[in-house]
C-alpha cells in the first residue's frame, strides 16, 4: 500500500473525530488543532489499528504529534 | 546565627525568561480554587481526628460513618491483629532500617510470606513495602525491551507507572473488551514476549473483569497473565482469593498482585506466583531492592490478618449482604450507579458534574457520612463519582442510616 492510499484511508477514519471540521494538513496536530483528549485518542487509535490490522503502541503514539507523522508511522508498518 | 533564619520566606528571583516549573499546574490550581469558592468543604484535605472503629471516625469535628475506606473486612481493630502488632513492636523494634535483600528481612517478613503462600496455595510470595511498588516493580522488571504489555485502559496508576518505568511496548485495550484484547494479542509480532495485565475489581466503578474468558484467550495467545486483586482479596471467591478464584482460573494466572492496605487492614504489597524462577525477582526488581522493608509491627499485623481472612466466610457473607442492600437502596432512590448489579464491595454513584458531585459530597459529610469523591483523571470517561466502599463491620442499621442520608442529601442538592 503506498503512502497516498494510507493517507486516504486515515482521512476517512478521522472524519467522525474531526468535530470542528477543520482542514487537515500534514502539519495538523492532534492535541492542539484537533483538540483530541485522551479518550478520543484511544478511540481514534483503536479505529486505525482495526482498519489496518496493526498495533500502534503507546510508545509509538508518544512520538506522533502531527497528522503527517501518523501517516508515516502507519505506512511504515503496512509496507514492511 | 545566620541571617537567613531570621528572614521571612522570599520568593526566589528568576532571571530572564526562565519559566516557573509550577506553571504547568495552573489549571489544576484554578480548578481547585473555583471548587472551594463555591463554599464546599475541601474534599481533598479531610482530617480524621479520632478513629472509633472500622466504620466510624470523628472527621472535621463530626461523628461520621465511614463509607469511603478500603477497610472491606474491618480488620484494623481486630484484637488478635492489634496484639500481634504490639508484640512485634516491642520484640523487634519500630523499623528495620534496611532493604529486604540486606538487613531488612526479619522473621516476621518470612512469616508474612508464609501466610500469603498458604492463603493463595501458591509456591512463592514476595512482600513489597506498598501495593504501588508491587505493580511498579513486577511489571517494569518482567516486561523488557521488545516485549509487549497488553493492558486494560482503566488500569490503576501503579500499573501504568510500572509500564512507563519499563522498556516494553505498551498496548492498551478498551475496558473489559474481550474482543479488543484478543485482536491486539494476535497482532503482536511473532516471537515477542507478552504480558497481559488485568484487575479483578476495577476500583472506580466497582465492576469485575470477565476473567474466565480473558485469561483463556491470553493463554491461547501465549501470554503470561498478571491480575491485580487489590479490591477483591479477602472478600470475593470462596476462600477470599479474589476474582481469579471466583472465575475458576487460579491455575491459569502467572502472577497475582495484592495489597495489605485494603482488606488486610495495614500497609504493604505483594506478588504471589507459581513460576519456578520467581525467587530471582528478589535480586532484580528495583522497587523491592532499593527501599526499606516494612516495619516488624506491620508485617506481624498483616500475617495475623491474612490468616484470619482465610476463614472469614461469615464476614464475606455479611459484606455481600451490605453491598446488595446499598446498591438496591440507592437504585430505588433514583441514583445512577456504576454497575447495574452489585459486583463488589464498591458502589459508585455517578454525579452529573464536578460541582454537583462536590456539593453532594459536602452535604453527605454534614449528614455525618464520608464517601470518596473521585474525579478525572482518576475516573474513566471523565466521570465524577461518589464512591462508596462497604465494610463487613457496617451493621444492617448503619446501611439503612446511610440510605436515609443519601436521600436527604440527594434531594437537597437536586440530584434525585
**Rg of chain A, Å, rounded:** 12 Å
Cα separation of the termini of chain B: 63 Å
Order of helices and strands of chain B: HEEEHHEHEHEHEEEHEHEEHHHHEHEEEH
**What summary fits the major beta sheet of chain B?**
7 strands, mixed
Number of helices of chain B: 14
Which strand order spans the largest sheet of chain B, edge to edge or round the barrel?
4-12-11-10-7-5-6
Shape annotation of chain A: globular
CATH class wording of chain A: Mainly Alpha
Can you tell me the CATH architecture of chain A? Orthogonal Bundle
What would you call the structural class of chain A?
A: mainly alpha
What's the CATH architecture name of the largest domain in chain B? 3-Layer(aba) Sandwich
The CATH topology of the largest domain in chain B is Aspartate Aminotransferase, domain 2
Number of strands of chain A: 0
- Percent strand of chain A equals under 5%
Largest interface: A-B, 14 and 17 residues
Query: How many domain modules of chain A?
Result: 1
Q: What is the CA-based Rg of chain B, rounded?
A: 23 Å
- Tell me the total number of β-strands of chain B: 16
How many H/I helices of chain A?
Answer: 4
Question: Your description of this structure?
Answer:
The complex is a heterodimer of chains A (80) and B (416). With 80 residues, chain A is mainly α. Chain A has a single domain, classed as Non-ribosomal Peptide Synthetase Peptidyl Carrier Protein, Chain A (Orthogonal Bundle). Chain A is built from four helices and no strands. In chain A, helix 1 packs across helix 4. Chain A is globular. Chain A starts with a helix and ends with a helix. The mean pLDDT of chain A is 95. In chain B, the strands form four sheets. In chain B, strands 4-12-11-10-7-5-6 form a seven-stranded mixed β-sheet, with helices on both faces. In chain B, strands 1-2-3-14 form a four-stranded mixed β-sheet. Chain B is 38% helix and 17% strand. The N terminus of chain B is likely disordered. Chain B has 416 residues and is of the alpha/beta class. Chain B is built from 14 helices and 16 strands. Chain B has two domains: 137 residues, Aspartate Aminotransferase, domain 1; 231 residues, Type I PLP-dependent aspartate aminotransferase-like (Major domain) (Aspartate Aminotransferase, domain 2), CATH 3.40.640.10. The chains are: A mainly alpha (80), B alpha/beta (416). The interface between A and B is medium-sized, with 14 and 17 residues.
